[in-house]
Design goal:
205 residues, alpha+beta, Pnp Oxidase, Chain A, 14 strands, 34% strand, binds flavin mononucleotide
């Protein structure tokens, strides 16, 4: 199979990208509207960008005159929380992704619980093992999406997912997004030490 993006419609390119760039981490983004309505929705166009300061990025599809609630709330308030999705909360996370009206809180429709944040106004998701409290840094209009960059200003990590003070993937059990309606579960991990190479001599050791 080959694919030339020229002449392909948005749906075909979307289906192609989401099936080959896998598995993708899921930013379960909670926000609050100007009117105080809490919102939470999943976004798998999600990545870490910088460590110092800690910047993360989420790409939110352009819906022209009717922006997604998450984007509108971030623009209005400058704050959001990224909650990491684990296996037990997978079904509730999928439920929040329906096209719910702006005045409906997805916390209510999914049965998830609001958790007060420390440095920002929007609540986190109490069922999630990790909350990254973020302040808006920058937004870029890129193609059919808006890439939103946030700075992590505070983080909460549940003690049970740690081994010797470090997040353990087999305790975190993160869910990844694949193409279509498919998800990957974390059941096995593989360790591979990276080569230590001198940049000047090219020698390993
Ligand atoms: C696992 C998963 C990942 C998703 N990733 C994205 C994404 O990266 N960008 C996006 O615009 N929509 C994504 N969506 C769709 C949004 O979650 C959906 O449009 C949602 O209704 C937006 O909610 P909001 O209007 O409350 O912001 C994803 C849906 C699911 C189930």
């Amino acid at each position: 199979m080959i694919l030339d993006p020229q002449g392909q419609d948005r749906g075909a390119l979307y289906r192609f990208l989401i099936t080959v760039i896998v598995p993708r981490p899921i930013a379960f983004v909670s926000t609050r509207s100007r009117d105080g309505v809490s919102n939470v929705a999943p976004f798998s166009y999600f990545t870490a960008i910088s460590d110092t300061p800690p910047y993360v990025g989420v790409s939110i599809g352009d819906r022209a005159a009717d922006p997604k609630d998450t984007l509108r709330n971030i623009r209005d308030t400058g704050e959001f929380v990224i909650n990491i999705v684990n296996e037990p909360m997978m079904d509730a996370m999928v439920r929040t992704s329906g096209n719910w009206p702006a005045n409906v809180s997805e916390f209510g429709v999914s049965g998830l619980t609001e958790k007060p944040s420390t440095r920002v106004q929007p609540p986190g998701v109490a069922e999630s093992p990790v909350q990254l409290e973020c302040r808006f840094v920058q937004e870029m209009a890129l193609g059919s999406s808006f890439f939103v960059v946030g700075e992590v200003v505070f983080a909460h990590v549940r003690e049970e997912v740690l081994t010797n003070g470090v997040v353990d993937p087999l305790k975190l059990l993160p869910v990844g997004r694949l193409g279509g309606d498919l998800f990957s579960l974390t059941r096995e991990v593989a360790g591979r030490p990276r080569p230590r190479v001198s940049r000047t001599t090219g020698l390993e050791g």
